[in-house]
UniProtKB/TrEMBL annotation:
Stored SUPFAM superfamilies: ATPase domain of HSP90 chaperone/DNA topoisomerase II/histidine kinase, Homodimeric domain of signal transducing histidine kinase
Superkingdom of origin: Bacteria
Name of this chain's protein: histidine kinase
Top-level EC class: transferase
Entry-linked PROSITE patterns: HAMP, HIS_KIN
InterPro entries registered for this protein in UniProt: 2C_sensor_his_kinase, HAMP_dom, HATPase_C_sf, HATPase_dom, His_kinase_dom, HisK_dim/P_dom, HisK_dim/P_sf, Sig_transdc_His_kin-like_C
Catalytic activity reported: ATP + protein L-histidine = ADP + protein N-phospho-L-histidine
Residue span(s) of domain Histidine kinase: 245-441
Length: 441
């Protein structure tokens, strides 16, 4: 398996625009701030360390010079007392001693600074150890006749910088992050409102309070959304007006047919004609219902469990065996009559082709699922999606409305998708067909 760092980085990156914008704004600023701060502070700390080293080495040089003028034990004792009292240095003159055989530590800033100053001011062999003691620096200088050992406080020869750097970076990062959050929150909020309005409109809910806000690009997108919404509404209204006229024109001759048939004597032929007229009326209603859609009905908070119980009673009155199970709170905004037609189409279809029907409604975090199982003949796997096509009729299997228009499932899916959900078909554990109607909460 190949290692792909960019793919892994892409997976680890946040997906939200707000978080990504924060990273885009804050990350470069923090990196630049860290670089500038490091360069500036490093030069500052280097200069301070050099000054402290100069002062310490100057004190050592003065003490060594006085001792070499009069190298006696009394002089060593006096100089040691003065150094400890006034210079915070612990010194000792070790006659006949030698420098340690181990090499000096000379790779850090403090080591380099002290070494340069000792070479410049004292110009004698020396040995330095800045790591053996946490609070002291061990300095040893070879003079004729012995070694001068000095223990200097680390804080007097070196400027500690780590805590200052961390405090500076944390403070600067917090200021940048606060400013970015306050700025971006107001810039992202109009985009979130636009997304919510588009989602609500896709679910068939009204968004009358939505207005373009935010940056000019966001306002343009919001204005385009509002224009699109109005075009869709005008198209639906024009289609509905046209179909209403067609319905009126078709109902008129059908009404004349019914009146003429009522005047004829009751015979098998006239009864067949009456059945054909009733079938034509029902087909006309299905055509108009499919073409009209469900957008004209207002959305209202609906108890889906109560609606399912109502559909169960209607199905049982029509002779279907329907068992209902409801789990959890099923209140959600719906176009009640339209969604009732969606559920009725699916449940009546199951009852028409099966002896028993089981309906289960379950709510989870994101949506509500209505599962309709039956023990009928089912639908072949290769036609589970085909049956949603308008006017599609099954030849050797079941159909939503046998002898009808073939619009039942198309209407059901259209209504479900108009609420932001969907209708899916599969094989049922009961042996027949399973229809699952999803609706987002």
């Amino acid at each position: 398996m190949r290692f792909r760092p960019f793919t892994m980085m892409k997976r680890l990156m946040p997906t939200g625009l707000y978080t990504r914008s924060l990273i885009i704004i804050v990350a470069p600023m923090v990196i630049l701030q860290a670089f500038v701060t490091y360069v500036f502070m490093e030069r500052h700390w280097q200069m301070v360390t050099e000054r402290l080293s100069q002062k310490t080495v100057a004190d050592i040089a003065l003490l060594l010079s006085e001792y070499e003028t009069n190298p006696t034990p009394q002089t060593a004792t006096q100089l040691s007392g003065r150094a400890n009292r006034f210079l915070s240095l612990s010194i000792a003159f070790l006659p006949d001693d030698q420098l340690p055989s181990t090499p000096s530590t000379s790779y850090g800033l403090l080591d380099r600074s002290l070494s340069d100053e000792i070479r410049t001011r004292i110009n004698k062999p020396f040995w330095i150890n800045t790591e053996q003691y946490s609070d002291y620096v061990d300095i040893r200088i070879l003079y004729p006749g012995g070694v001068m050992r000095v223990l200097a406080l680390r804080s007097h020869v070196y400027a500690a910088n780590s805590h200052i750097f961390i405090a500076w970076m944390v403070g600067a990062s917090l200021v940048l992050l606060t400013v970015a959050i306050l700025f971006l929150r107001n810039q992202i909020r109009p985009i979130e409102r636009l997304a919510q309005a588009a989602e609500d409109f896709g679910m068939g809910r009204d968004v009358p309070s939505f207005k373009p806000q935010g940056a000019s690009e966001v306002r343009r997108a919001a204005a385009a959304f509002l224009e699109m919404r109005e075009r869709i509404r005008r198209q639906i209204e024009q289609r509905t007006a046209m179909l209403t006229g067609v319905s009126h024109d078709l109902r008129t001759p059908l009404t004349r047919f019914k009146l003429q048939l009522a005047m004829l004597p009751d015979t098998p032929e006239t009864e067949d004609l009456r059945a054909d007229v009733r079938e034509m009326e029902r087909m006309l209603e299905d055509y108009l219902e499919f073409a009209r859609g469900h957008q004209r009905e207002a959305t209202a908070l609906t108890d889906l469990g109560e609606l399912l119980a109502e559909i169960q009673n209607d199905a049982q009155r029509n002779g279907h065996s329907v068992a209902l199970q409801v789990h959890g709170d099923l209140d959600l905004p719906l176009r009640r009559n339209a969604f009732k037609r969606c559920l009725t189409n699916v449940i009546d279809n199951a009852g028409k082709y099966a002896a028993h029907v089981w309906v289960t409604a379950v709510r989870d975090e994101d949506d509500i699922a209505v599962v309709v199982d039956d023990d009928g003949a089912g639908i072949p796997e290769d036609q589970l999606e085909e049956v949603f096509r308008p006017f599609y009729r099954l030849d050797a299997a079941r159909n939503l409305d046998a002898g009808g228009t073939g619009l039942g499932l198309a209407i059901a899916r259209d209504i479900a998708r108009g609420h932001g959900g969907d209708v899916q078909l599969s094989r049922s554990p009961m042996g027949g067909l399973r229809a699952v109607i999803h609706v987002p909460v």
